[in-house]
Amino acid sequence: MSFRNKIKRRNFIKTSAAGAAGFGLLSKSSVFAQSQDTAKRRVGIIGLDTSHSTAFTGALNNPSAGPEFGGYKVTAAYPWGSNDIKSSVDRIAGYTEEVKKLGVEIVESIGDLLKKTDVILLETNDGRLHLDQALQVMKAGKRLFIDKPIAASLTDAVAIFNASQKFNVPVFSSSSLRYISGADDIAKGSIGKVLGADTYSPATIEKTHPDLFWYGVHGVETLFTLMGTGCKSVTGTFTEDWDQVTGLWSDNRIGTFRGLRKGKTDYGGIVFGEKGIVTLGRYNGYNSLLAEIIRFFQTGVAPVSQAETIEIFAFMTAASESKKLNGTPVLIESVIREAEREAGEKADI
């Protein structure tokens, strides 16, 4: 049984047992959630090489922070962080000083961080480091949010979720573009069933990561927020300035993503529904995502299912494979199976 089918089956069992509790995995995580003391609100950050770290700290540690943040505060941070991505490494010193001014203790290791905090924001910009860093957190039994990209390969993404099950520790990952203005109303049925969507975002390339993993993931996350899971095949066209990726869903719906590297760049999309056609609103910043992260820390229930996150990264992996094959469609299920096989070789984690 494939990873995607196993997750679907687990979600069905969870839904049957618990009723309409929102989407995301419960299973063992729900039991885990019930056993935790949600009064523990010390947040630790791994990675001070991204503006997300300072933005989250500024919001949580603001004396006038709203109730949606539940009294959680960033109390300690481990700065590293990327080792060889210059645009990230160069930020560490400045961001370290910035969070220190907000009352955050800087520690020398992830081990030290885990002793001083209750929940973790894994913010390291370099997705290649996420599996190793996440394993240290999960082995300590602490809930964690992993910022985009969840990993620098689909294989590592699958391995992270395998470890989440093994160590019985819930994990949540998402781009803040999941919460772009208008997406929530569409999810609530404002235009009926979504029949298709075209999204776009900047798609800066970083040579250490597959094509869309570094920045195109934002627009792809928006696409899946609107379309849901069930993508069957992917066709990718890439030039120096643009990406154009088309996904065919199993119910014959079509969703596309355009990556922007020339001219004006922005985030957005057009959604085609049974009752109307809607242009998405503007990106609203990090606070909507941060409120969901805090809710996840409190409950242990991720608002985005593991299956959906895996499919997002399978979509981007398939797009890269299609590029190598000069635009030949690539089946999502085939790249997931290959990632499962490779992740299985890491089963001793």
Could you list some keywords that capture this structure?
349 residues; Rossmann fold; Dihydrodipicolinate Reductase, domain 2; six-stranded parallel sheet; 40% helix
Account of the protein in words:
- With 349 residues, the chain is an alpha/beta fold.
- The protein has two domains: 24-176, Rossmann fold; 178-286 and 314-340, Dihydrodipicolinate Reductase, domain 2 (2-Layer Sandwich), CATH 3.30.360.
- Helices cover 40% and strands 19% of the residues.
- It has helices at 3-18, 27-34, 51-60, 86-89, 92-100, 110-116, 130-139, 154-166, 183-187, 217-227, 287-299, 306-324, 332-344, and strands spanning 42-46, 73-78, 105-106, 119-122, 144-146, 171-173, 194-202, 231-238, 242-249, 254-260, 268-273, 277-279, 330-331.
- The strands form two sheets. It has a seven-stranded mixed sheet with strand order 12-11-7-10-9-8-13. A six-stranded parallel sheet has the order 3-2-1-4-5-6, with helices on both faces.
- Strand 9 and strand 10 (254-260) form a beta hairpin.
- Residues 8-38 have low confidence and may be disordered.
In short:
The chain is an alpha/beta fold and 349 residues long. It has 13 helices and 13 strands.
Overall tally of domains: 2
DSSP summary: helix tally: 13
| Fold-level CATH name of the largest domain | Rossmann fold
From the alpha carbons, calculate the radius of gyration and give it in angstroms: 19 Å
